[in-house]
Amino acid sequence: MNKIDCLTAIAVLYLAPAITEAGTFTYRSEGETITLTIADNEFATLTQDYTATSSGSSAQAVSDTVWTKVTLSDTSTLSQTMTASTEYSSGYVSPVLEDVDGQDIYIRPSIWVSFPSGTGATEVNAVLSQISGATSTTLVSSPYIEASQPGPNETLDLQGGYDIYCVEVSTTNGQTILNQIETLTASPNAARSIEPAFSFTASVEMSAPNDTYWPLLWNLESSQNYDINALETWDTTRGYSSVKVAVFDLGIQNNHPDLPVADGYNATPVGTVNEWYPTEDWQNHGTAVAGFINATIDNSLGVVGVAPDVTLLSVKIAYQYNYLTKTFRIDDDRVVAAINWAREQHCRVTNHSWGRSPTAPSAKIAEALENARIGSNMLHFASAGNNGRESSTDRSLRWPATASSVIAVGAIGKNGSRSDFSAFGSKLALTAPGSGLITTDRTGADGYATADYAPNMQGTSFSSPIAAACAALVISKNPALTAAEVEAVLCSTARDLGTTGHDSYYGYGLVQPQTALDAIDPYVFFGAANSIDGWKKHEVYGWLKDEAFPWFWHAQHGWQWTSSTDPPALIVYDLQSNDWFYTDISESGYYPYIYRYSNDTWYYYFPDTSEPRAFYNMNTGATENF
Fold first, then answer.
1. 3-state DSSP: the chain helix, strand, coil percent, rounded to 5?
2. Residues identified as active-site
3. DSSP annotation string for 217-244
4. Is the pLDDT of residue 531 over 70?
5. How would you classify residue 472: left for phi > 0, otherwise alpha for psi between -120 and 50, otherwise beta?
6. Which of 35, 104, 244, 506 is 20 to 30 A from residue 576's alpha carbon, by CA?
7. Using CA atoms, how far apart are residues 434 and 442, in angstroms rounded to an integer?
8. For position 427, what pLDDT does the model report?
9. pLDDT at residue 65, rounded to an integer
10. What is the Cα–Cα distance from 454 to 456, expressed in whole angstroms?
11. How far is residue 13's CA from residue 553's CA, in Å, rounded to a whole number?
């Protein structure tokens, strides 16, 4: 990642001065001021750790990273507590912060600062240079990192997004970090967010399965017709393997007979970066979530996913499970690294069936998700939360479903009514089946049930991947659609439920993938090959609706294509002006091949014949000559 070479900071370590008399901590999150409570007589120690602030794929985790919370017997001030903490640990210690749900938040040794993309270097350095004790400064996320690049003569013009910097600080005391953030937050500056690296508590919620498999796959097809009409949808597409969906969860079983997983990333400090599958008895949730996306079709086994032919990736984000509270820890800087990894893998969809209090958001995660959406056309789906029952104190959406670039999904039952547990709010976008479902389970004695499938599952954890898989189907038909366009077509074609129009209980309604597919045109993709043996599938610059014609590429005046098979062209479409025009372009301006996409395969032709001479196979990743 890019470094700020001009930034020089003098290392000054504070010894643990008091932060505020009120026992609170204030930080800036996406332009808003957030206040958290600091416990006076508690602190947390960290036994081992690793740095996860670079692109993600290069970070290596270590085993046995454990947070240990210590509560002093007497009521001490925060300053006294942090001083006493040195008696318990010679390593890193953190104050204990709490969100409104009473969940613990710990501070990791780095400060994260974001700026709207395009902020000048002077303004950026004016903030970052105030951080004392800095050992390195890294640009971790930006809409321009791993963005889809234009043709050689085009200019990449991304609108929006944020440049997120991580400043690693040499300190063994998290109070030092809080002090610096308090100071930076209080002063007017160009930063949109200023926060520490959080290790926070999160959870996944669902009912325990029982021994019955009723109702079997009503979410796909049901006589009551509150399903997603999968059979009709599959007549159009089952998805393409080139469309990748990343599940941010507790890990997905890597050898389930009904669930293909292509690859993964471990965003926890336990195990190696390649251990993206479950390694603990409580890590069952991700395998159940994944079944709704791409469980195998037509294999005489168990269940089938909504988009069975798309490619599934596993991102494991949770560690240190608390069996009493059924919660686990997530480190937000590691999640940012995982988002960057998903961008490097060219994922188009991510699913987040986990949640926590929306009153203690992580700006770095929210802004990294937005950068991925802007720069890599990635859609993000999240479960609304299972706190919607009347007995709940707070029935609003959970975070990250409330993040601006995330599509929040609620749950309905078989009768089309909102599931009583489904959280709600104005940010809710879609609903999908979420009660009485059956899905893949960890095999054998592992998992929720004794078989390889878990029955009678319920939760917005499962409505979210159903909606995410529907988005993958839309992208499979037309990969040229932007993230905003895919979201718009899903919302505009959803089946309206509840009050007319968008509402807080159903969003725009029940997601309907076939209706969405009917609303878009299929597109043919084109790109320029370096040579007949050197096709690169990421060099894709344009598209056309009509696949009946062979199309020439033209490299003059920006990337263009022409409908004429015998140059000079009579009519050309200009990708820069987004318009057709008449021209007399000479033959010398054309590439010598015609490109066409069909049946998951790239073909290119010589101009003097319609016979294919070579093609790029997106399934095998190889160029093959006839």
1. 20, 30, 55
2. 249, 285, 461
3. STTT--TTS-S--HHHHHTT-S--TTSE
4. no
5. alpha
6. 244
7. 20
8. 97
9. 64
10. 7
11. 60
